């Protein structure tokens, strides 16, 4: 229904650009995680431990300087939004979605708790995946499991594998549906 009410500019330019942006952000995050996996295999310094001396402002936290730092910020916001969308899309939590002007207080509290847990896990999540090396001054590197190579390696491999699988599945199904629709109309 929303697609039919959308303007031709939205349908022909806005939606494809948004889709390309999401594909690009997903691809970049998977590439960064794959490079982090290679770093983990080659160098022990790639483990997501805490920063020993916080040299804020003296050294860039990205090899690409300011552009890399901006890209890290964009990727962290993308991961935050995609985790919230994924959380509310899961069958277990779809009932937690607020309804306009009809949300009970218990549901509001549940939403606040859920968003607090997701936002608290985001720094550890982005640090474990190697998207950023910045500790957000929370000293999240003190967690013992962040020093365990196997947990961090499997976490990164799981993220890269499952994200790639979802990406290929979504794109290939969309292309397949468009081909069926295109050939179905002609035949």
Automatic annotation (TrEMBL):
Signal peptide: none
MF GO annotations: transmembrane signaling receptor activity
Superkingdom field: Eukaryota
GO cellular component: endoplasmic reticulum membrane; plasma membrane
Keyword terms, alphabetized: Cell membrane, Endocytosis, Endoplasmic reticulum, Membrane, Receptor, Transmembrane, Transmembrane helix, Wnt signaling pathway
Transmembrane segments: 12-38, 58-88, 108-125, 145-168
GO terms (BP aspect): receptor-mediated endocytosis; Wnt signaling pathway
Localization (cell): Cell membrane; Endoplasmic reticulum membrane
Membrane topology note: Multi-pass membrane protein
Annotated InterPro entries: LIMR, LMBR1-like_membr_prot
Major location category of this protein: membrane
The UniProt record lists the keyword Lyase: no
Keyword Ligase: no
PANTHER family referenced in this protein's UniProt entry, alphabetically: LIPOCALIN-1 INTERACTING MEMBRANE RECEPTOR LIMR, PROTEIN LMBR1L
Family recorded in the similarity comment: Belongs to the LIMR family.
Protein name as it appears in the record: LMBRL protein
Source lineage: Eukaryota, Metazoa, Chordata, Craniata, Vertebrata
Gene: Lmbr1l_0
């Amino acid at each position: 229904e929303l697609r039919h009410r959308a303007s031709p500019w939205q349908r022909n330019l806005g939606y494809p650009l948004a889709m390309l942006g999401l594909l690009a952000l997903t691809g970049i995050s998977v590439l960064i995680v794959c490079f982090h996996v290679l770093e983990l295999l080659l160098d022990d310094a790639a483990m997501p431990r805490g920063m020993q001396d916080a040299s804020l402002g003296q050294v860039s936290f990205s090899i690409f300087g300011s552009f890399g730092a901006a890209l890290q910020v964009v990727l962290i916001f993308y991961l935050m939004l995609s985790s919230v969308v994924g959380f509310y899309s899961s069958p277990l939590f779809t009932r937690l979605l607020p309804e306009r002007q009809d949300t009970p207080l218990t549901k509001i509290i549940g939403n606040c708790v859920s968003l607090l847990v997701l936002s608290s896990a985001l720094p550890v999540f982005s640090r474990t995946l190697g998207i950023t090396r910045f500790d957000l001054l929370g000293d999240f590197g003190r967690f013992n499991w962040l020093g365990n190579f196997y947990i961090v390696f499997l976490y990164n491999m799981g993220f890269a594998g499952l994200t790639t699988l979802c990406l290929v599945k979504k794109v290939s199904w969309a292309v397949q549906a468009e081909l069926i629709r295109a050939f179905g109309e002609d035949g």
